[in-house]
Amino acid sequence: MMQVFYGARLFDGERMLDDAALVIDGGRIATIVPVAERPMPGSDLGGGVLSPGLVDVQVNGGGGALFNETPTPEGMRAIAQAHRRDGTTGLLPTVVTDTPQVLASALDAARAAVAERVPGVLGIHVEGPFIDPRRPGAHSPQLIRPMMPADADRLVAARTATMLVTVAPVSVSDSLIRRLRAGGVILSLGHSEATDSEALRSFDAGITAVTHLYNAMSPLTHRAPGVVGATLARPDIICGLIADGHHVAPTAVRVALAAKGSDGIALISDAMSPALGGPDEFLLQGRPVFRRGGKLVLEDGTLAGSAISLMDAVRWLHRELGLDLAVALKMATLTPARLLRLDGEIGRLRPGSRADLVHIGEDLAVRETWIEGVASANDGPP
What is the mean pLDDT of each run of 10 residues along the chain (382 residues)? Predict the structure, then answer.
């Protein structure tokens, strides 16, 4: 079925287009034409911006659901539905360091969710347990462990659609990094005390991304550049960034932007269950987490994910840092799609791409989303 949208500025993943109409056919983008040349009257959006749907590569939960607690297709569906309400049309439910049983259930859930075509679920992000015990963040230190060859084999065997795995060099050898990459797994360096030389060696072995830049990693100093320095120095590495005003100071965000640009930074929410209407308190593997002053913390004050959506990150960058809206949107659409090697399918408006869209009002509120051309109102109960 053909659909035509006009009356809003179009953001195509890189730039804003005026006086343009988007033509969709069969759930995919057919073309972009001047409004006067649209093939049918279509739908007047009445202003705002029509953008590719947002793509979030790190989502632990939302709307009261937490993937580690409900590692099922239903848990994935609940998280995807919650984040869709604020513009995210593609995401990776993220399982953090846990028992082998929880990880196995999460991998099974991802396979089932992809097979069932759960709207918005692109695959899975495995964040631990193969990380550095010196940089656990909010992960349970007693569950962190080195990766064995059998672990790598299980991950490759379980891969379906998109799989992102966060690892640290101290826990995952270069040979296993190469094994995982050959098996189609996308690797991200995170929760690591690695030196810059160790990080650079891991990049050369096949790691192509970095998990939540600055957080839970060795910092940049002038004689010990650490993971942060190695990341900022490598233009081929895309780093995740939590732009919520709590995880990273504004000046540090500006430093990352100066070094990486919008091509090298993928905004992430790192959302937990309180995001998008969830409770102010919850349990993370039996440990209480509290929402205090807009941030989520353990009892000792350690940050434990966030309570934001990806659109909240876009709003923060635009309103608080004065970043051009197109630049902020690119870091929430095309750049994360490139990180996941999905930029031929999602993250941009071009002929042949999936019609995953978000209509944003002048106030940056989300008015509607579409996944493969289907509006949220027509995609089942919220």
Answer: 96 98 97 97 97 98 97 98 98 98 97 97 98 96 97 95 97 98 98 98 98 98 98 98 97 98 98 96 94 94 96 98 98 98 97 98 98 82 40
Q: What are the domain boundaries of the chain?
A: 2-51+350-378, 54-339
54-339 maps to which CATH number? 3.20.20.140
Rg (CA), the chain: 20
* Choices 3.90.226.10, 1.10.10.60, 3.40.50.2300, 2.30.40.10: CATH for 2-51+350-378: 2.30.40.10
300 as an active site residue: the answer is no
Q: Which of 86, 151, 270, 312 is catalytic?
A: 270
Q: Which of 358, 324, 260, 264 is nearest to 55 (CA)?
A: 358
The alpha carbon dihedral of 129, 132, 137, 142 has a sign of positive
Q: How far apart are CA 204 and CA 356, in angstroms?
A: 33
Question: Could you tell me the pTM of the whole model?
Answer: 0.96
**pLDDT for residue 378:** 65
Sign of CA dihedral 344, 345, 348, 351: positive
Give the separation between CA 113 and CA 108, rounded to whole angstroms.
9
